[in-house]
Amino acid sequence: GVLGLDIDGDTLSFTQISGPGTITVAENTARWKWFPECADLGTYEVCVTVSDAVHPEADTCCFLVTIFENAPVIHCSTQVVHYGETVVYDIAFEDDACPSVPTWSLVSGPGSIDTITGRYTLSTACPDVGTTPVTVSLFDGNRADTCTFDVVVENEPPFVECPDDIYGLKVGVT
After folding, report:
1. Fewest beta carbons less than 10 Å away: which of 26, 50, 62, 124?
2. What are the tens digits of pLDDT across the range 58-72?
3. Are strands 103-108 and 130-139 parallel, antiparallel or unpaired?
4. How many CA atoms lie within 13 A of 106 on its CB side?
5. What backbone torsions phi and psi does residue 39 show, to the nearest 5 degrees?
């Protein structure tokens, strides 16, 4: 809060002369409050004056308030598939209540990402076997977040098919 001091102990009077929000006064202290909304993004100067009934001159206190949107937060996790399968990954994220149209981008790695939905896709083949890092970014119009996750493409283990049991095979005949 804005603390007013008076050496004589006179009762102080506070007045907000500029800026958003409101002040309330209790025990020679002015408390400033404001509940900004998305349309209020930016920096504002708030000025408050203090005076007493005995002295006509007032003192002024000004301070800056900056309202900003929080950056989105991406939640990535490792994706595991067998070669020949397609990775389809709807990447989770959080963003604050300010309306915006988020824009996704593939920063590095194979595959593609839908720039609006954040759906990552990768069609895999045998040469993709192994672990590959993929980095994506989300920009919400004001701020951005980046996340790296691994795509693990596994190789199928070899297998053999055995014939049914064979009975009655004659010696010397294959």
Report:
1. 26
2. 888 899 999 888 889
3. antiparallel
4. 13
5. -70, -10
Cβ neighbours of residue 60 closer than 8 Å, sequence gap 6 or more = 17, 47, 48, 49, 50
DSSP string, 136-151: EEEE-SS-EEEEEEEE
The HSE-up count of residue 140 (CA atoms within 13 Å, CB side) is 21
pLDDT given at position 31: 85
Q: What share of the chain is helix, strand, coil (3-state, %, to 5)?
A: 5, 50, 45
Predicted local distance difference test score (pLDDT) of residue 121: 98
Q: Is 52 exposed, middle or buried (0-12, 13-18, 19+ CB in 10 A)?
A: middle
Please state, in angstroms and rounded to a whole number, the distance separating the CA atoms of residues 36 and 67.
Answer: 7
Sign of CA dihedral 124, 125, 127, 129: positive
Three-state DSSP at 100 gives coil
Cα–Cα distance, 135 to 150 (Å, whole number): 9
* pLDDT score for 21: 92
How many Cβ atoms from other residues are within 10 Å of residue 31's Cβ?
A: 12
Q: Which residue positions in the chain have pLDDT lower than 50?
A: none
- Find tokens 């409050």 and name the residue: 33
Check: CB of residue 119 under 8 Å from CB of residue 89: yes
